[in-house]
Amino acid sequence: MEHVTNSPSETEALGESLAGQLEPGTVIAFTGDLGAGKTAFVRGLARGLGVRERVTSPTFTIVNEYEGGRLPLFHFDMYRLGSADELFDIGWEDYLARGGVCAVEWSENISDALDNDCLRVDIRRGENDDQRIITIGGGNLD
């Protein structure tokens, strides 16, 4: 399913609306260029899950954990990982077992560790600076 947003707040709103459809154990694999809006989308997911904390990019920490919502949210940034092996070294399987939502930015860097049935969100720049073309597919939404 393709969506067009015209501002970061619209991108967040799309993430928020998707959150209501998520189940425990959902993995969302994000792709898109640097600055495309992946973290904005995750901010919306968090809001839709009822997370009240400020959501920031986990670029240097690899993962940020947000509890207190309908489901826990584990926000990963795989930009600095060189392989799926490194993902398992940080406890990927433990996060999956905790029954939350795993939102994975730069998922292409660890694609061989992701199940084929994960939800996929691709975010691309549109015709102007704020426009985004967001394609959502896979998982239980198709």
Order of helices and strands: EHEHEEHHEEE
Fraction in beta strands:
25-35%
Tally of contiguous helical segments: 4
Low-confidence residue ranges: none
Q: How far is it from the N-terminal to the C-terminal residue, by CA? A: 8 Å
Written account of the structure:
- With 142 residues, this protein is an alpha/beta fold.
- The chain has a seven-stranded mixed beta sheet.
- The protein starts with a strand and ends with a strand.
Short description:
The protein is of the alpha/beta class and 142 residues long.
Output the keywords.
142 residues; alpha/beta; seven-stranded mixed sheet; 7 strands; globular
Give the helices and strands, then pairings:
Elements: E1 2-5, H1 8-19, E2 27-32, H2 38-49, E3 63-66, E4 73-77, H3 84-89, H4 92-97, E5 101-105, E6 119-125, E7 132-138
